[in-house]
Amino acid sequence: MSGPRARLADLAGCWSAALERELSAAVALRHDLHRAPCLSGAEHPARDRIAAALGDAVALEPVADSGGVGRLGPERGRAVAVRAELDALPLTERTGAACSATNGAMHACGHDVHQAALVALVRAAAGLDLPVGLVPVLQPREESYPSGARDIVAAGALSRFGVAHMIGAHVHPGVAVSAVAAGAGFVNAAADEIEIRLQGRGGHGAYPHTASDTVAAVAQIAMALPEVVRRAVSPLSPALLSIGTLTAGDGAANVLPAHARILATMRTTDPEDRIRLFHAVRQLADGVAAGFGTVAEVTICEGEPALINDSGLAEGADAWLARLGVDRAEPMRSLGADDFSYFGAAVPSLMMFVGVETEGAADPVDRPSLHDPRFFPSDASVAAVARALLVGYLAAAEAIVDADGA
Fold first, then answer.
1. DSSP codes joined into one string, 149-192
2. In the chain, which residues have pLDDT < 70?
3. Given strand 190-199, what is the order of strands in its sheet?
4. Backbone φ, ψ for residue 261 (5° rounding)
5. Which of 157, 5, 190, 178 is nearest to 81 (CA)?
6. Theoretical Cys-Cys bridge with 349: which of 163, 184, 240, 344, CB 3.0 to 4.6 Å?
7. How many Å is the maximal CA-CA distance in the chain?
8. Distance between CA 70 and CA 61 in Å, rounded?
9. How far apart (Å, rounded) are the C-alpha atoms in residues 371 and 369?
10. Is the CB of residue 267 less than 8 Å from the CB of residue 335?
């Protein structure tokens, strides 16, 4: 190894050593952030607390209302951004941790860990000779709409700060503790909501021949939706339709209602499947509704696109994990969704998953997972996520240096 790559290897050693010195303060910060969670759209206190913890390492400017973004290292040229989400969930915490939240909100998705890890990484980078810029991004509204990631992209923040690649790392109890999964290609699904409304003619239950039967129609549609997935999407391409809400009638036994409604989530991993499956649902709903003398109205509320990891960054991250002695896990893929995908649609990006566990919860059957009010990754997860972010930066910086030298 020589030239720019040798300098990156030297940087990795210096940065890793500096990171170790920041971890104690980062864990204390994690406790503070966990104790005072902020719901989506109201993350200003969290942003300001993190900005104070960053101190002179980097100056942040507001973005997407309650978010923040800054840059350190070279002032010009392309940069690598690292993201931490700011928002918590509307849950009552049941972890029993000394730093438990008591305000009806909770960091049940590990965002407090991500925030503290980003601070440790950035503070450790201050004073180092970075080959390309480092752009910390404090993102609001990951857990709700409107998406904070989408708003950051729409505001032009990535281009304004010269971001060539975006790096993310998310805790996950499905990965071996402290190991990092950085697979290429699809890692999270596109998440859309489909609403099906049926309009018919109401009537008396004793005289069904004088009315439309929206209950029978909506039941037939609900039962047929899994078949739509099977008919419209290749079994080698993960996709699903799950019904979250089905309503008809107002509680009377002898009234045939005129209206019925289905609200479902649609998860796809291929952009063409996303279009094809929605059209198949609309075709099914129209056909079944007509057979029962009703009319269907089918609408889609588009959510996040699929999260696709750049193959070059994933390969680079795996190589740096090995160099730094961090355990590598098999790619973590799911039909969950993360609005990090908006960054991936704008620039080649990488989302990694870092293995964590809730201390004292060893039972694999009842182990708390993401969004569980008992989920509390151990403090060691701060270091694990910080190292993953470092690996992501090194892989992206290497890609930039190699391209500039080509």
1. HHHHHHTTHHHHTTEEEEEEEEEEEEEEET-EE--SEEEE-EEE
2. 1-3, 362-365, 406
3. 239-248, 259-268, 190-199, 295-301
4. -150, 140
5. 157
6. 344
7. 86
8. 6
9. 6
10. yes
